[in-house]
Amino acid sequence: MSRRVVILSHGDSAVPELVAALHARGVRPHALVLYAASPLREWRALPPGRRVAAFPLIPLRWARRRIRLRPRREVRGRVGRVVITGPLNGRSMEKAVRRLRPDVLLLAGCGILSPEILAIPREGTVNVHPALLPWVRGNGAVENSILLGVPLGCTTLWVDPGIDTGRVIARRLLPVAGGETLEALARFLRALWVEMAADLAAAAADGPLPAGTAQPARHPLCRAVRDPERRAAVARAVERGVPSTLFERWRPFADPRDLALPPAADALVAPSAAGAWLAEVPDEPAAPRVAGGAS
Fold this sequence. Notes:
With about 300 residues, the protein is an alpha/beta fold. It has helices spanning about 15-25, 40-45, 50-55, 60-70, 75, 90-100, 115-120, 140-150, 180-205, 230-240, 240-250, 265-270, 275-280; strands at about 5-10, 30-35, 80-85, 105, 125-130, 135-140, 155-160, 170-175, 220, 260. Helix 1 packs across helix 9 (about 180-205) and helix 8 crosses helix 10 (about 230-240).
């Protein structure tokens, strides 16, 4: 009997890339579950004066969201089943996932799961976080990594009831040559996410995944960087070559074959204080080299 790897997503734009990467590896996920946000929940949040006019539109909005979630034919042909279900942690989602009886549930752009859904997969739920754990938890992965003095990279982990606090399976640095824009760094990090998610799903389809390593500490939860001063600090850091400096400083601790950080990396390296890189790096950026990308 083949192992059941189920992908759960809110319809993230990287899902077709992930499915294509798995197809290239000869892996066909058991199912792709896509969930739609609840228009009823949004309706309840409206001011009372607008609810009467908006109420008749709820069924139309719900149907439109489900139609928009339907993936392209090439994606549908590369997974065992496509299931479109109700909102995150809702009753319909729980029933859909339970019917699929997954061995492993892989998150691909997904909110925080309830304990009830986390308990469904026979072996557990896994995720790829677009930053290095335990140092950069939460959102705004690129910006917060730079502000905290942590190189860009991704982490595969088992999902527990906390936010990015589960046991770490693997961590990998993003190669940064210097001269990349912030937009390019985000694009390269996305490519690394797809690669590591495909590796994780392929390994789960082949057999049980490693137990992973417990995170030694819980760092503060990061939020999306919206403050103009902090965003300006990130822009200056990118112009001064901070991401490539961070990559070069952490690379000696990584596996030279794939730049994977060892489980004990937390005892070998530590992020600098927030903003310290702005003082350390010269105002004049180094001469740009050819931009790198996810390996």
